Amino acid sequence: MQANPVLAHFKRGNWVENRHRGAFCLCDSRGNIAISMGDIDRPIFPRSAIKVMQALPMFETGAVGKFALDDETLSLACASHHGEPDHVAVARRALAAADLSVDDLECGAHPPSNSAARKALEEKGEKPSALHNNCSGKHAGMLSVARALGIDTKGYVERGHEVQKRVRAAVETVIGEELTEDRCGTDGCSIPTWASPLKSFAQGFARMATGEGLPENMAGAAQKLFDAATAHPHLIAGTDTFDTDAMAAFDGRLMVKIGADGVFCGAVRNTGLGFALKCDDGNLQAATVMIAAILQGIAEPDEKALVVLRRYAQKPMSNWRGIEVGVLEATAEAYVSA
Q1: Is 126 exposed, middle or buried (0-12, 13-18, 19+ CB in 10 A)?
Q2: How far is residue 242's CA from residue 221's CA, in Å, rounded to a whole number?
Q3: 131-182: per-residue pLDDT in tens?
Q4: Structural domains in the chain?
Q5: CA distances from 56 to 34, 169, 196, 298 (A)
Q6: Could you give phi then psi for residue 296, rounded to 5 degrees?
Q7: Which residue spans within 57-102 are E strands per DSSP?
Q8: Fewer beta carbons within 10 Å, N or C terminal of the chain?
Q9: How many CB atoms neighbour CB 120 within 10 A?
């Protein structure tokens, strides 16, 4: 089997030190491939890149209407946020709407990913809670599903819980693939994660962007989730993050979401094309420069968006003295054209 192409490398001084390989697929809702690089049939764990798919049961079960969940709550349900004050506030509000609290979250606690938020918490002498977990919005949404169904919320992260059964079924419908027990693991936030071919996730995002190939109610829910996420990009990630900066620069035309271990999924909404990327070695910084280069050729960026994408496609690296020692950058192979 041929190796995936090198889509990013780290150049120290005048010499390439590290090479990062990856696979990428761009396709429409019917699975017609516009661009592909590498092995797009290999099953990958999408991780947090498909949170927007995992949020669909919030509509199916009526949780959105029953608990009057607003667009900020919907955006945070799709987010891998960095624990800034507005992220924590929206997560807390989402829980309260369903008469729940931080104690009901089963995602675990970790310090805010944002350094300023982390420092502020330390200066107050406070410990991080599950609200600071970058998946707290998604988990608040899943808890609302359990509440809407009138079932016990405890263990909602387990594979056999009705919430996760609903999430699994929703993802299967969107990507058109069965999620099988022989390709299942546990995500960082404790919910199940299922591997499927990379191209299936690209097609799934095209379906969500257009509604084509989805049941009518699910198509409408997908549109509302995309609208919420792109209208509130800061809630999707946070200050100085690729997802937030890129979506803000595209003014609603781009849905893009990072996933742990080098995954990006999304859709160019005005063209109706979905995309999925996996960096072979799981390096998130390398995956970011890859997708920043690829989007320059497939997303029809205007000058404002192009400035953002170019900034993320090259990442200078400095040592502890602040001396620039090299640059992580996309290779020529990543600069494709749709």
Answers
A1: exposed
A2: 25
A3: 999 999 999 999 999 999 999 999 999 999 999 999 999 999 999 999 999 9
A4: 6-334 (3.40.710)
A5: 27, 10, 19, 27
A6: -60, -30
A7: none
A8: N
A9: 14
